[in-house]
Amino acid sequence: MHRERVFDFWLTAAVTVALFIPIWGVLLRPTGLIRLPVYLLYLGVPALAVILGALIYGARSNRVLLNRFLVGYAGGFTATAIFTLLTVGAGPWLDTPNVAVALGQWVLERPLTAPVTPAVIAVGMAYHFLLNGAAWGAAYALLFGKAPWWLGLLFGFFIWAVLVLSPPFYQWGLAGAASGAWLLIALLLVHFVYGGIVGYIVYRWVFPEVGMEGIKAIRPLYA
C-alpha cells in the first residue's frame, strides 16, 4: 500500500481555495475594486490549472480527492438547478434578483441596467452553475467528506449569510432590507434546499473517509 502523504492534505486545501476564486470575484465585483474579466484571467486561470492538475493527480494517486470533488461538484450543480427553478418561480411575488443575468453583465463588463442579451444569459448561467453553485458543492465535499446530510443545511445557511452581508446584495438594500423581510426568508429557504441537496448527495456517494480534519483516510487509487 502506498504510504499516506501530507502532500495530499495540502493539495486538497489548495483545490478548496481555488474553488473560491470565482466566488470571491462575484463578491468583490460590485465594490468596484476589481474588473471581473481581468480578475478571472489573472486568478481564475491559475485556479483552474490547480484544479485540473489535482484531478489528474487524483485519478492516478488519490481516489478520495477525485471522488469528493466530482460528487460535490455534481451535487452543487444539481442543487443549483433546483435553486434556480425555485427563485425564478418565486420572482413575480418576491422580486428575487436574477443572479445569472447580473453575473453575465459583470463578466461582459456591462452595466446591470443594460439590455439582457442571449450572450449575457449564456455567460451568466455558465458562471452561476459551473463556477458558483457547483464550486460551493465541491468545496463542501472536500472540507467535510462523508458528513451527516444535515450539515448541508448549516452550509446552506452559511452561504445565505455570506450573500446577504456581501456587496452584491447592497443594490437591493443592505441585507435585502429594501425588498422586505420576505425576500430574506425566501432566500434562506432556498439556500436550505440547496444545502440539504448537497449534503444528501455528498453523504450518499462520497467514499466513507473523513474530511480535511485528518489525512489518515487518504488512500491511493492503485495499491
Structure, briefly:
The chain contains 7 helices and no strands.
Distinctive features:
single chain, 223 residues, mainly alpha, 7 helices, 70% helix, globular, disordered C terminus
Describe this structure in words.
With 223 residues, the chain is mostly helical. Helices cover 70% and strands 0% of the residues. The chain has one domain (6-205). Helix 1 runs antiparallel to helix 2 (36-61), helix 3 packs antiparallel against helix 7 and helix 6 packs antiparallel against helix 7. It is globular, with a radius of gyration of 18 Å. The model is unreliable at 172-177 and 210-223 (pLDDT under 50).
Q: What is the chains' assembly state?
A: single chain
Q: Give the biggest sheet.
A: none
N-to-C SSE string, H for helix and E for strand:
HHHHHHH
**Overall outline:** globular
Low-confidence stretches: 172-177, 210-223
Strand content: under 5%
Helix/strand/pairing category: mainly alpha
**End-to-end separation:** 5 Å
The average pLDDT is 84
How many structural domains does the protein architecture include?
1
Estimated helix fraction: 55-70%
- Give the tally of β-strands: 0
Number of helices: 7
Cα-atom Rg, whole angstroms? 18 Å
